[in-house]
Design a protein that fits this description.
By secondary structure, this protein is mainly alpha-helical. The chain has a domain of about 140 residues. It is built from eight helices and two strands, in the order αααααααββα. α1 crosses α7, α3 packs antiparallel against α7 and α4 packs across α6. The longest helix has about 30 residues.
């Protein structure tokens, strides 16, 4: 009986965290937050910074919304959620500005647009407003890391092919011809399509192997 309870207890927390990495990845599965995904993923540095900023807002807003969910009237819950999210976005914007002005300029208005990222408001409404603090934190952390992972995948590929570098370090062999299109907006669509194709193929392969087993 103890073993059964342990087996039942362990996946509860891990599932809330892991689902955002694979099964419900916000970019590769749910296709959410496409504005920053396509706009700031021209370099790995920008992509990683945006992913971490979004994770920061997502985790803290989930925690705050879970904490006040019992006290917020239904009529104003969305407005309250947006106010909470906007507060954390302001914090992260000032943090980025203090750390690096160049990075702040590179991300531009897309830092402020985290407020209207449908992934964050969706997790607030669908999960944090209905669950306790610990699951809400794990949900936000998993979704945030999944979003960061997806952004980094796009940014790394676009920077490597577009300039032959990663995080500004030259990696391409001599004579490598830069794919200029990869650092342009159209390169974001091409790269996203390639990653979606690969991710869906891996999911189907996993599901087929699981079904066979």
């Amino acid at each position: 009986m103890a073993t059964a309870s342990q087996q039942g207890a362990l996946p509860v927390g891990t599932d809330e965290f892991l689902k955002g990495l694979w099964r419900e990845n916000p970019v590769f599965v749910q296709v959410l937050g496409m504005c920053p995904v396509l706009a700031v993923s021209n370099t790995a540095r920008n992509a990683l910074a945006m992913g971490l900023a979004t994770t920061f807002v997502l985790v803290l807003s989930n925690a705050a919304i879970s904490g006040v969910r019992r006290f917020v009237p239904k009529q104003v819950r969305i407005a309250t959620f947006i106010l909470i999210i906007a507060s954390f976005v302001t914090v992260v914007e000032y943090l980025i500005q203090a750390i690096s002005l160049d990075l702040h300029k590179a991300l531009g208005a897309f830092i402020s647009l985290i407020v209207v990222n449908c992934m964050i408001l969706g997790r607030a409404e669908a999960f944090a407003s209905k669950n306790r603090l610990a699951p809400s934190l794990l949900d936000g952390l998993g979704m945030g890391i999944g979003f960061t992972f997806a952004l980094f995948c796009l940014g790394a590929v676009r920077e490597l092919l577009g300039s032959g570098a990663l995080f500004g370090v030259e990696l391409a062999p001599a004579g490598f011809q830069d794919w200029v299109v990869m650092v342009l907006p159209s390169g974001g669509f091409f790269t996203l399509a390639a990653w979606l194709l690969l991710f869906n193929w891996l999911r189907r392969r996993r599901d087929a192997n699981g079904g066979a087993a």
